[in-house]
Structures are given as C-alpha cells and as structure tokens.
Specification:
The complex is a heterodimer of chains A (158) and B (186). Chain A has helices spanning 9-15, 21-44, 62-71, 73-80; strands spanning 58-61, 84-96, 102-106, 114-118, 134-144, 148-156. Chain A has 158 residues and is an alpha/beta fold. In chain A, helix 3 (62-71) crosses helix 4. Classes of the chains: A alpha/beta (158), B alpha+beta (186). The interface between A and B is medium-sized, with 25 and 23 residues.
Amino acid sequence: MEPQTINSPFEQIQNVPLLSMKKLMIILAGIAILTGAGYGYYLYNKPHQSIADEAPAFSINVNKIINDYEADEKKANELYLGKIVEVSGLISEKTLDSKGNYSIILQGPDLAGVSCEFEPNAQNSLTNLKEGQEVKIKGICTGILMDVVLVDCVYVNQ
Amino acid sequence: MRKLFLSILLLVTVFTVNGQNQFFTKSGKIYFNATSSMETIEATNEKAVSKLDVTTGTIEFALLMKAFSFEKALMQEHFNENYVESDQFPKAAFKGTITDIKTVDLQKNGTYPVKVKGMLTLHGETKEVMTDGTLTVKDGNITSAKSQFKILLEDYKIIIPSVVKEKISKDVLIKVDLNYEPYKSS
C-alpha cells in the first residue's frame, strides 16, 4: 500500500497558481498607475506650504533690503527674489483690508518700506501688534514697487 | 497790469478750487482668469501700486508677478517658472490715459463710465490695451477705479506647451480694482 501523501494546504496554494503571470503583471501595472495618478493628484492639489518652520535665506534689517534695492534693483532681485527673507524693523502702518486681513508696512530709511502680506494662518498673531512696535517678519520676497513686497508672511516671535 | 493781476487771480482760484487731483493706492487688486473648459485657473494680486491724475487723466499701475496668489501651489509654481518667467520679468505695468476724464465731475458723487487707452507691459512685451471702466467719486475724491479687459497670451509671448494647450485659455480676463486715496505729495 502506498503511503498516503497528505498535501498541506500550503502546498496546494503553491501548486495551483491563483494568478497567471500575465494577470500578476496587469495587477502590478495597475498599482503602479494608481500610485502615479495618486501622487500626481497630490501634487496637483498640493497645499501652499507655510514658511513658518523654514529657515530664512537672509535675516536682515529693513534698511539693508531697501538700500540694496535702491542701489541696484536687478542685483537685489538676483539676491532676494523668491527667497525667504526675515526682516526686522518698526511697524509704520498696520491696515485691515475688506476681508478682515491685516497687512503691515515696515518703516524704511526713506519713503520706501517693506510691505508684508500675511498667510491666512498668521492673522491671529497680528491682532496685538501696534504701529511703532519693533518686529521681525519672515516672508517671500517678490521684488520692489514703491515698497519691497513680501508675501505669505509670518510673524516671528522675538 | 490788470491782465496780470487777473491771470494771477485765475491761477490762484484754479489751484484752490481744484484741491485734490492725484489719487494713489498701494493695495490695488488685480485678478486674472485663464480658465478653460478643463480647468479653473485664477489668481489675485492685492499689492498693486497705482496713481491717477484727474487733471490729465493719466492712470498707471504696476504689480509684482510673484505676488499673484493661486489656490493651488503647483499652479503658482508653474505660472512663475514656466509661463511668465517671474525671475526674468518680475513686474507688470500699465500706463495709460482716461480719454474722457472731462466727463467725470468731482463735485458730484457717483460712478462714472470712462474709456481707457494705454500700454500694458507683461513678460517683457508691451501692447496697447483699450477698455472701458468706471471711476467712483465720493466727496470730491476718486475712491475707486474698476475695469476689466482681455489679453491674448501670444501677444505677450507667453508660450503654452502643447501638452497643456487645451487646459489654458488663450485669452485671459483681467480685472482691475483700485481703491484710491488722495495722494499726499511730500
């Protein structure tokens, strides 16, 4: 009498291919496509990143950035444009726009100053700031018109 | 002698009656929309600088391209890097004239329709723009100027790669909303 072979359930799984190679490839390709699409969708909807935790490329006084821009705008743009800049100075103007958002202008050496537009999450930190107060503000430099304009700003606690 | 006296008197009256004739803002709003049937593309810039002189009708505004804020961060990145090349051309500006400024009566509150003609510089290219707009008069001052017009991207040599051509409208609607204050010359 032949010894009875008892197939373990594992062997059964190994022996009977659940998936043909072709099917497996299709499924893998499907996963790859979905991951790619998901990542693409994530990038497409990527939220604006707060610069609150990012280190500034420059940490300077308001007079320095204004003087640099007034001396040579092109050179100053090469230095500061699109970069995170931390500027310290006195608040010369604090205004509230129609949507209830504060903007701040830092006093410069002459007529020009540094105009700061804040990110929405930073608004709460601005309520108690007063004109004449010395502050440090971090933002992305977009260039100079009348003032040097920083956008997506956050208030940096001293 | 009498003539001279009269002309001096006239000059003095002109200056005193006229009062405020220059208006200014640092927080003008410029909005644009390049939405196609496939995708919503819009952005706002709230830091435009503008000056309006009602004696000559001269109106100017300037803005920084990187101060345009999009809802989607990636779109903003592509706008600055690939389309308007903000590092190379950080500013856009309009210089023009309100051709029928004489129809605006500063002594009478109201919103006046006006015609504007001028040159728009964007992406290093300058093209003529003609459009209609409104000026709002309140208590002897111009308090706001509004207008909207369309521009063609190809006029300003803004190249859209063919892959995304269907996603971006070829003509872009621009809305201008300037909140003026009397200009204090110092």
